[in-house]
Specification:
five-stranded antiparallel beta sheet; Beta-Lactamase; alpha+beta; Heat Shock Protein 90
């Protein structure tokens, strides 16, 4: 009997152990698998989101190269030596400057075309000129639209040879047979992908003369991809391997990359998979997923590269090594398995207690993970033990902290980008306003010259005859008053015509080293004794150590005189005129501030002060400040207005002491 009871008791014990083991093991396995799937999904989602964001950074860097190239062409196209050579039809004096520009901008090619699209000068191969490039997309664009532009382009080998055989050699490469790539008949690339920028060449008076085109060959040029990797991944490595890589494709072939072959060389000439080529090159989509790149798995993002016509000619890609994410998953798997084995080992003693202790933190982590997935990053799992559960909870909290940090970095990056866009927009608006004002002054100047020329002769005739008639009439003749009015008004008209001519001539400044303080003293000596200045207190605060500026003395006297006379007109009942000069060392500028205590200028008309014929005076011509503005423009200087109603007006004259800036 005792033996039977023992057998029964042993059997029940075994069944209980088995039941509890199964009861704990199955939930443990389910929890482990569920946790792994959850972590895997979250980690890969995070990785793909990070790669997608990094791809936008890569595209921004790539676009910055294009913008810099466009700005360089726009700036250098305005150089006198460039448009002067075209204007003279003589390339002999442009060689040194073109080579200087090419080296300064790190260009592989720099070519100057005339207005028919024929090559005027090739910097890298001066002996090949006269060929017709009018069919080139960029040259066509400039001949038609005449605005700076930049984009990628595929340049054929014969065109590369015209520039330099070295560039043709750099562009050509053998295509490496790559698994999973599309079938391809050709085994070599001879053409090259070139980042091109082009700008129209105008003379100083706006005459179109030709096109300046510059380019950088991307094939075997690793500057862009290395900068992308350094900017995005900061040279981080994992187990001796770079965690990130960037690539530029010509069609589906790698032509510039920091992906490495097994021997450590760059994997140029290898191709992308057919799936990626179909999505990106054929359908124009952005492709994000895991992919096998040359010799390892990456989380990759690909985006198309388009030429000036919008056709897809290649791709830019960014990849993050998958191995760190995979290792994290395996570490979490080991943690889950350890928890399960520990639960099974302790089942005979504290099965229910251990099950409760295990399930509670796991549930807490699952709840926290679900809330995190919904966007609530404030979750934190309380760590109440130092065993495997505590280790898991600590790792979970670290992961949440890392997610919060990554989210904050993305947010800060977006804010920084927005500020940059706003700053750039403000700069563009200022440039546009300046261009509009310059074009308006030029147009009005031409009109004024024509009008003044046509009016001056009949006006002289009227003045001469009316003066003669006035002299012939006796003093008591009642017609004398009307004739005197005709003479006075004709003299006023002649003054207006003279102002028009002064405005239209825009005489080229005869620049010399000039002390602006002396200019002010000369002007003040002319006006101090005038009736309009009798009730005006003039105070000067002139910097005795003011450096000289390169300027035309007569034209600068005219600027100062016009401003001072306007100030006097603003104070008919008297007031104070303050003139203050000083040097601003940081900007290397001489500043002259002329202030009055008049009624000030309403905000709504301040933008019109420098427009020709705009005046608030009954007898004014509205040309004084417009002429002053034109003179300052020709001196590469500036005029600014500081005024508010009831608080007077200050006109600020700004001139640079930097000779290079003035000469440019």
């Amino acid at each position: 009997m005792a033996s039977g009871d023992k057998t029964i008791r042993s059997s029940i014990k075994a069944r209980l152990i088995k039941s509890f083991t199964v009861a704990i093991l199955i939930p443990s396995l389910v929890t482990a698998v569920g946790g792994m799937l959850m972590f895997r999904g979250q980690i890969y989602d995070q990785a793909q989101a990070r790669v997608k964001s990094d791809l936008e950074s890569a595209k921004e860097i790539y676009q910055n190269y294009l913008e810099r190239l466009k700005d360089a062409m726009r700036i250098h196209a305005t150089r006198m030596v460039v448009y002067g050579a075209l204007e003279r039809n003589d390339p002999s004096g442009v060689a040194a400057e073109m080579e200087k520009i090419r080296r300064a901008e790190r260009l592989d090619m720099l070519t100057l075309m005339d207005k028919q699209g024929k090559v005027f000068y090739r910097t890298c191969n001066p002996s090949v000129v006269g060929d017709d490039e009018s069919k080139d997309l960029f040259v066509q664009y400039e001949l038609q639209k005449r605005v700076p532009v930049s984009s990628a382009d595929i340049v054929q080998p014969e065109e590369l040879i015209k520039e330099s055989r070295q560039l043709a050699t750099q562009a050509s490469m053998d295509i490496t047979k790559t698994p999973m790539a599309c079938p391809l008949g050709k085994m070599q690339i001879l053409s090259g992908m070139v980042l091109k920028g082009a700008a129209p060449v105008f003379t100083s008076n706006g005459k179109f003369l030709g096109v300046l085109v510059g380019g950088i060959v991307v094939n075997r040029n690793y500057e862009i991809v290395d900068k992308i990797r350094t900017t995005v991944f900061k040279e981080n490595a994992y187990k001796g391997q770079q965690v990130g890589a960037a690539t530029i494709f010509q069609d589906d072939v790698r032509i510039s990359t920091n992906v490495r072959n097994a021997d450590g060389s760059r994997a140029i000439g290898t191709r992308v998979s057919a799936e990626v080529a179909e999505a990106v090159l054929k359908n124009g989509e952005t492709w994000i997923s895991r992919a096998f790149v040359v010799n390892d798995w990456y989380i990759c993002a690909y985006a198309p590269i388009r030429n000036l016509s919008g056709n897809r000619i290649g791709m830019i890609s960014l990849g993050s090594l998958e191995r760190p994410y995979r290792d994290i998953l395996w570490r979490n798997l080991y943690v889950f398995l350890g928890i399960a084995l520990l639960a099974v080992g302790l089942i005979s003693i504290v099965a229910m207690t251990v099950a409760h202790q295990i399930s509670r933190p796991i549930r807490a982590m699952a709840d926290a993970a679900r809330k995190i997935a919904d966007g609530d990053y404030s979750q934190k799992v309380e760590v109440s033990s130092d065993d495997e559960i505590g280790f898991l909870a600590n790792n979970f909290n670290k992961m949440v902290a890392e997610l919060v940090r990554a989210h904050q970095e993305l947010k800060e990056w977006a804010e920084t980008l927005e500020r940059k866009v706003e700053k750039r927009t403000t700069e563009l608006k200022a440039m546009q306003a300046h261009l509009i004002q310059s074009e308006k002054l030029a147009g009005v100047g031409k009109l004024a010259a024509g009008v003044a020329h046509e009016i001056n002769n009949p006006l002289t005739c009227v003045l001469t005859n009316s003066s003669l008639l006035l002299g012939d009439l006796p003093p008591d003749d009642p017609r004398r008053e009307d004739l005197q009015t005709i003479v006075d008004e004709t003299l006023r008209c002649r003054k207006i015509v003279k102002g028009l001519l002064d405005f239209a001539r825009q005489t080229k400044p005869q620049k010399q080293n000039l002390d602006l303080n002396e200019v002010v003293e000369d002007v003040l000596s002319l006006v101090r004794n005038q009736a309009s200045f009798q009730n005006i207190a003039i105070r000067t605060e002139m910097d005795p150590n003011l450096p000289s500026v390169l300027a035309d003395a007569d034209q600068m006297r005219q600027v100062v005189l016009n401003i001072i006379l306007n100030a006097a007109d603003a104070m008919p009942q008297g007031g104070a005129l303050r003139i203050h000069s000083y040097f601003e060392a940081k900007s290397k500028q001489v500043i002259l501030r002329i202030s009055d205590t008049g009624p000030g200028i309403p905000v709504e008309i301040q933008d019109k002060l420098f427009e020709p014929f705009f005046t608030t005076k009954r007898t004014g011509t509205g040309l004084g400040l417009a002429i002053a503005y034109g003179i300052m423009e020709r001196h590469k200087g500036a005029l600014k207005v500081e005024s508010s109603p009831g608080h007077g007006t200050t006109i600020v004259v700004i001139l640079s002491t930097d000779i290079k800036t003035i000469d440019d």
